[in-house]
């Protein structure tokens, strides 16, 4: 188990510093997955809180050399969508495609993002690497680029 905490020393104009972000990561022994929890505690008043974590939606690759496809459960109906690596060859902004927003979409039954790994040297298919949100109604925006 790894617990990371950060107290923000600076804040946006009109806001107070001192809000805290905590992340807990659990690596079950002998398993090929981990559990992740993020929590924010704010010193500011807000009608709705959000935590933007940009790392999960971004995959580092060179013309799809590290993955063959991506699965997004929250787009294209109840079975989700599988997107080939070629759809990510040209850069695009996060909100251009493969974007979920709570104010424009229904809350999905599942919120899972996964990508099918590929060995960049050999091209051999590897395992799927996936992340799941346990409570989809708390997600405001989800994207993949």
Short description, anyone?
With 145 residues, the protein is an all-beta fold. It has strands at 2-7, 20-26, 35-41, 67-72, 81-84, 99-101, 111-118, 125-133, 141-143.
Note the main attributes of this structure.
single chain, 145 residues, mainly beta, three-stranded antiparallel β-sheet
What is the secondary structure topology, with strand pairs?
Blueprint (H helix, E strand, L loop, with lengths): L1 E6 L12 E7 L8 E7 L25 E6 L8 E4 L14 E3 L9 E8 L6 E9 L7 E3 L2
Antiparallel strand pairs: 1-2, 2-3, 4-5, 4-7, 6-9, 7-8
Written account of the structure:
The chain has strands at 2-7, 20-26, 35-41, 67-72, 81-84, 99-101, 111-118, 125-133, 141-143. Helix content is 0%, strand content 37%. It has a four-stranded antiparallel beta sheet, with no helix packed on it. It starts with a strand and ends with a strand. With 145 residues, the protein is mainly beta.
Task: Give the low-confidence spans.
Answer: none
Number of helices: 0
Indicate the radius of gyration in whole angstroms: 17 Å
Q: How many runs of DSSP E, i.e. beta strands?
A: 9
Strand order of the largest sheet: 5-4-7-8
The main pleated sheet reads as:
4 strands, antiparallel
Instruction: Spell the H/E element sequence.
Output: EEEEEEEEE
Ends distance: 29 Å
Strand content: 35-45%
Q: Structural class of the helix and strand makeup? A: mainly beta
Mean pLDDT: 83
Helix content: under 10%
Global shape: globular
